From TrEMBL:
Occurrences of domain C2 (ranges): 25-160, 557-687, 740-864, 1092-1211
One GO cellular component, as annotated: membrane
Keyword Repeat attached: yes
Principal location listed in the UniProt entry: membrane
Keywords: Membrane, Repeat, Transmembrane, Transmembrane helix
The protein's name: C2 domain-containing protein
Entry-linked InterPro entries: C2_dom, C2_domain_sf, C2C_Ferlin, C2D_Ferlin, C2E_Ferlin, FerIin_dom, Ferlin, Ferlin_B-domain
Membrane-topology descriptor: Single-pass membrane protein
One Pfam short name: FerB
Any one GO BP annotation for this protein: plasma membrane organization
Organism: Anopheles atroparvus
Region (Disordered): 921-949, 970-1002
CDD domains (alphabetical): C2C_Ferlin, C2D_Ferlin, C2E_Ferlin
Location relative to the cell: Membrane
Length: 1218
């Protein structure tokens, strides 16, 4: 882009003088362009030609009063709109001529934009406008993304589009002077109504002639009209809908009669649809659009909502379910939709599979890799299927014939085929250690597929369902036509075609943003089908069975037989619904305190019931069984069992004044028990609660529907009584004493089994606390809450001096469910204790899954013991004193350690040993001397030709560096090498008889070697090293030690929990700014009484968290690929270290003109933990004039490394030179 600005420097208190803006200043935009990365500086000129042919179906844009006045004077009727098209692209705007008074204007003009190619502008904006002299208005806007209509690959194509119809959406079509939704017409928000369609085409020509176009401009030229029928045939489409249930209606509209309207384009729009053009200039025989509107019925008959409890309103659609249908003529371009549907289905399945894999990954479940393999296998096979189907359907009815259609189908085939092959190859590479990378790669494939779904050229207009009350449009739902389109091939059919779906109607436009949009205006159970007239016989194939075969259904395949207006259900069954509402967790806090007073309302068909209110909590336990006795369901038994009615659970926060705040909504399907089936006890499960697009918590509940007349059903449990004050009744009048309220608790066999648990917490300290309300946090404390019980830590007296807690270990006992999946969340809250007994909430952290923090006894038989994070803990195998499998197997060192150490817990906290704690660090890559696995010579012996004395540190270092580069090259064939490596390690073990003296180095048990070969960065085959590789090389990691898999971020016993403040937005960058500090500590949960043989949750040898003085040595070896800072494309780097308040600068020894400087320096700093625990290594660029620039920095948490158990082992060589 281009930015022009004026900079002035003024003294304090001076007024700002705005410089005079003169038009005479030349703008040399081309010479001063800001170009994004990857765009060549020398770009070619190109012409972007946008052809505008015609439009039809425009709404009227002028009030009819004016028109009637005109008619009285002039005696002629006019169309109430003066349309023209405005196209904006890359800062240029072009307009077609205005066609006076026409609902279907024909322009046949082209706008030629002269721009550079590739353009810096992402999209072309096309607006249909009304040229009203009094009030110019926008009829509709559409954006065309250049990325979607071109492709920059080697088989790519220049931007091309159409000729194809663009469907424009915006506000409702009825004209009023103050259109409250007018901003919908500018392309903001989701359009709530069809406005018009516009036939356009785009093409690009790259020109070599530079002189012709000195300036950028837009020219309007006439163009030849096209023959539309050569691009596609017009076909009749039939859209059918049945409303099986309408409930949860908005209270405000319930005193009027209500009906629904189904529309597609202007067809079916009964209120403000088709405007007949006064001067019909088209030939009548060519115009099949004007079909008789009485031939179909696009609305339901109006009726008044009724209610059982003055709270929940519904429409009485009992045995007669009303139907709506629409017939319309559109260009037949079904294949565009079919193609999108096939890709969308592959993507959908892949996304679900990857989400499940991710859950397993988080729980560290070993079946994650099996799942991921399965997902990739399925993607590969469905991609192949896609290619076969599309290859067979390149011609035939419904195919688009534009250039973009042809290029796009080729592109989709190429991409999908390659993703299928890549998935198959990736499947073979999934191993336990590489899971995370493979999962990320699969996510990339998913993103590629997602990009292919949407077709930039529209096929059919979207479908709208409107609820109309008192003659006004109230609420709507918009459906993509491609989700409803029917095809004889299953893969191509839309996902909602011939299916019953639950739809929530919402308010149009701005009204739906924010809290008003969270409430449902109506809940519909809708059956929809859309297809061409020749497929009409299938329109009722998916309707739930149990209806009477009417004449209209029997003769469905005849095109001229109308669709039924109602479907009469003769089969019906009565059920009793038992809703077991047990508890919710992680709700959104809606009061000022960050807590809520939640209650839940359950809606099913026409009934609703409400639970009691539980005050001041985000994880309420309602423990209620609600019984709905008479629920009638229409349809056959198999249908009901296959697709039971939807249950909606709304959770509200009760406010003492005003109306309740909406927290979120969960949707559930009940378990159906018919007379003939056996009764099974229902199982509680978690349902997700959502509000708008965000998650708002989870609900633990179970729903079962029992058919009346079943005899093997357990009877209801005895009610328990609660004071009526808690219950959200009608009038909260406590002066007149009301009787106590009876509620049924959830029966014993359904509720989770509780047991006594102990939660033990290690309070270590708080770090990086930000200010709250502009005040520093001086005396913080931490509260831990779980299922209503709260434990407070001791108060830190002065957070500046020592941010660690005085009392480290505390515990509390409570009843928790034995099954982990029912466990309530643990909330960590940081509170600042101010003077005069005031408390301020600093931040909170929610632990939703307790699973990670469970403390279990060690398994009996397995010599390798895992602690709670699944890492190995030092454990001795009694008897074999030499062979100890230890964290050494975790590091890439891999040797066994002699077991003369006692005190197994010592290495859990590395503070007991002082190993090589500090690490030579580079800028991008942090490097550190460490052993390279299995580089010692298998045959023993090996003559050394080199002079021993030449092997100084740098020689070894560069040898190691070469190895790192080698190993990255070889990782492509990693699988093969892993197997070779395993065999080789086993040979090493067997052949090593002669050299058994080096016990520590050699005792590589087969088990460890496998572990090593999995965990170590892919080692290279032995062949590539000469026999003299006796050099004790270092292990160089290509990334931070924290991100090395086996070191697990050095958080094996001390975790950092980020504390968040404010409401969750879901935007990752914003959520970063919500972090107000970190709580360092650990949480262990275990069952009481304590089992035998269980180690204490926190070892008695815990290091103290008192301030501790340490000496830090930092070895700076070198930096690579620094960012150039000077005009010569180089930099003059030097190192600065910061630790707490100490700053060490090595400015005098800067390296001149070098982007890969070798520093080779050691720095010593004395520090005190916990105040100075974050070491910052910065690299600055030395400048002769002015201040030095920061090239980059990296931060290392020394405290985590100091207290880590890996510290004792990190960097110990497996062998040394003689």
């Amino acid at each position: 882009g281009y930015l022009k600005c004026d900079v002035g420097i003024i003294g304090k208190g001076d007024t700002v003088k705005v410089p005079p803006k003169s038009e005479k200043d030349p703008d040399d935009i081309e010479a001063n362009l800001l170009l994004p990365d990857g765009v060549p500086i020398e770009r070619q000129r190109a012409k972007f030609i946008v052809k505008v042919y015609r439009a039809d179906g425009l709404p009227r844009m002028n009030s009819s009063i004016m028109a009637n006045v005109k008619r009285a004077f002039t005696g002629e009727a006019k169309d109430l709109v003066n349309p023209y098209v405005q196209v904006s692209f890359a800062g240029l705007t072009g307009k077609t001529n205005v066609k006076k008074a026409s609902y279907n204007p024909v322009w046949n003009e082209q706008l030629v934009f002269t721009e550079m190619f590739p353009p810096l502008c992402q999209r072309i904006k096309i607006q249909l406008r009304d040229a009203d002299p009094m009030k110019p208005a926008i009829i509709g806007t559409h954006y065309i993304d250049l990325k979607q209509i071109s492709n920059d690959g080697e088989k790519g194509f220049l931007p091309t589009y159409g000729p194809s119809f663009v469907h424009l959406y915006g506000s409702t079509r009825d004209y009023n002077l103050l259109d409250q939704h007018s901003n919908l017409n500018t392309g903001l928000g989701e359009g709530v109504s069809y406005r018009a369609r516009l036939l356009i085409a785009i093409r690009t020509e790259i020109t070599d002639n530079v002189e012709l176009f000195a300036d950028k401009n837009v020219e309007v030229e006439p163009t030849l009209p096209i023959c539309e029928s050569s691009y596609c045939k017009t076909d009749g489409f039939f859209l059918f809908a049945t409303v099986l249930e309408a409930s949860m209606l908005d209270k405000k509209i319930c005193d009027r009669s209500v009906y629904f309207e189904l529309s597609m384009g202007n067809a079916g729009n009964s209120l403000d649809g088709h405007n007949e053009s006064a001067t019909n200039n088209m030939d009548d025989d060519e115009d099949p659009v004007s079909i008789d509107t009485t031939a179909y019925n696009s609305t339901t008959s109006a009726c008044k909502p009724i209610t059982h409890d003055k709270n929940h309103f519904y429409l009485p659609y009992w045995d007669y379910k009303p139907c709506m249908d629409v017939r319309a003529w559109f260009p037949d371009l079904r294949r565009r939709m079919y193609n999108s549907n096939m890709i969308a289905k592959i993507t959908e399945r892949m996304e679900v599979g990857l989400a499940e894999t991710n859950l397993l990954l988080e729980e560290e479940d070993p079946t994650a890799e099996v799942k991921l393999r399965g997902v990739l296998e399925e993607v590969a096979s469905s991609c192949n299927k896609y290619v076969t189907i599309t290859k067979g359907a390149l011609v035939g009815p419904g195919t688009g014939k534009t250039k973009l259609d042809k290029e796009r189908i080729k592109l989709c085939q190429r991409e999908v085929e390659s993703i299928g092959n890549m998935s198959r190859n990736l499947r073979a590479l999934v191993t336990k250690s590489s899971m995370k990378e493979r999962y990320k790669t699969a996510q990339n494939y998913l993103a590629k597929l997602k990009f292919l779904i949407e077709d930039p050229q529209h096929a059919l207009p979207d479908v709208f369902v409107w609820m109309i009350a008192n003659g006004k449009r109230v609420a709507y739902h918009r459906l993509d036509a491609r989700d409803l389109i029917y095809s004889t091939i299953e893969e191509e059919t839309g996902i909602f075609c011939g299916k019953v779906q639950t739809v929530f109607l919402k308010l149009p436009g701005k009204q739906a943003d924010g809290p008003a949009g969270w409430h449902v205006r109506a809940k519909l159970s809708l059956y929809l089908w859309l297809g061409t007239l020749k497929h009409k016989k299938f329109f009722y194939s998916g309707l739930p069975r149990g209806y009477e075969m009417l004449h209209e259904l029997k003769n469905a395949e005849k095109g001229n037989v109308p669709a039924p207006t109602t479907v009469h259900y003769v089969e019906k069954y009565v059920f009793q619904l038992r809703a077991h509402i047990y508890q919710a967790r992680s709700l959104i806090g809606s009061d000022a305190s960050g807590l809520s007073d939640p209650y839940a309302t359950v809606y099913i068909t026409e009934y609703s019931k409400t639970t009691q209110v539980i005050e001041e909590t985000l994880s309420p336990t309602w423990d209620e069984l609600m019984v709905f006795d008479e629920i009638t369901i229409y349809g056959s038994k198999e249908e009901i069992k296959r697709d039971p009615p939807t249950i909606v659970i709304d959770v509200y926060d009760q406010d003492k004044v005003g109306k309740s705040d909406f927290i979120g909504r969960a949707i559930a399907k009940p378990r159906i028990k018919l007379k003939e089936n056996h009764y099974n006890t229902p199982v509680l499960e978690w349902f997700e609660i959502t509000r708008g697009l965000d998650g708002a918590g989870e609900l633990l509940a179970a729903f079962e529907m029992l058919e009346h007349g079943s005899d093997d059903v357990p009877r209801l449990s005895d009610p328990k009584y609660i004071a009526h004050g808690e219950y959200r009744g009608g009038a909260m009048d406590t002066s007149s004493l009301q009787p106590a309220m009876a509620i049924l608790p959830v029966p014993q066999e359904v509720r989770p089994n509780l047991a006594r648990f102990r939660i033990e917490v290690l309070f270590w300290g708080l770090r990086d606390l930000k200010r709250v309300h502009f005040m520093t946090v001086d005396k913080p404390r931490i509260d831990i809450e779980c299922s209503g019980k709260i434990m407070n830590s001791s108060i830190i007296q002065n957070a500046k001096k020592n941010p660690n807690f005085a009392n480290m270990l505390k515990f509390f006992d409570l009843d928790l469910p034995i099954e982990e999946r029912y466990a309530p969340p643990i909330t960590i809250r940081a509170v600042d204790c101010r003077s005069f007994g005031r408390y301020t909430l600093v931040g909170t952290h929610q632990i939703t899954s307790i699973h990670k923090y469970m403390h279990r006894p060690p398994p009996k038989e397995d010599p390798k013991r895992f602690n709670q994070d699944g890492q190995l803990v030092l454990a001795r195998r009694r008897g074999s004193a030499g062979n100890l499998i230890s964290p050494a197997a975790d590091t890439a060192g891999g040797g066994a350690i002699s077991a003369s150490w006692s005190g197994e817990n010592l290495t859990l906290y590395g503070a007991a040993y002082v190993g090589k704690a500090l690490h030579a660090k580079g800028k991008k890559a942090k490097k550190r001397p460490e052993s390279q696995d299995a580089t010692f010579d298998a045959q023993g012996g090996g003559d050394d030709d080199d002079d021993e004395s030449s092997k100084d540190w740098w020689t070894k270092y560069f040898l190691s560096y070469e190895k790192l580069i080698e190993s990255t090259k070889n990782s492509a064939s990693s699988r093969l090498h892993e197997q070779q490596q395993q065999q080789r390690n086993q040979q090493t073990h067997h052949h090593g008889g002669a050299n058994d003296t080096a016990e520590n180095g050699r005792k590589l048990g087969v088990k460890t070697s496998k572990l090593v070969s999995k965990l170590s960065p892919k080692s290279t085959p032995a062949k590539s090293w000469p026999a003299n590789s006796r050099v004790a090389t270092c292990k160089i990691y290509p990334n931070e030690l924290e991100s090395v898999y086996e070191y697990n971020d050095f958080k094996e016993w001390l975790l950092a929990f980020p504390l968040y403040r404010g409401k969750k937005t879901g935007d990752s960058t914003e959520d970063e700014t919500r972090i107000v500090g970190y709580f360092k500590g650990a949480i262990k949960v275990y069952k009481l009484p304590i089992e035998k043989g269980m180690e204490p949750a926190f070892a008695p040898t815990l290091p103290l968290n008192d301030p501790i003085h340490v000496l830090v040595r930092v070895y700076i070896v070198k930096a690579t690929d620094l960012h150039p800072m000077d005009l010569n494309g180089k930099a003059d780097p030097y190192v600065v270290l910061q630790l707490g308040s100490k700053r060490t600068s090595d400015k005098d020894n800067y390296v001149s003109k070098q982007l890969n400087p070798v520093f080779g320096k050691c720095f010593e700093i004395e520090a005190t933990f916990p105040q100075d625990s974050m070491l910052t290594v910065q690299i600055f660029d030395w400048d002769l004039v002015g201040s030095d620039d920061l090239i980059g920095e990296t931060k290392i948490d020394l405290e985590n490394r100091f207290y880590s158990k890996h510290r004792a082992m990190c960097g110990i060589s497996t062998h040394y030179e003689e």
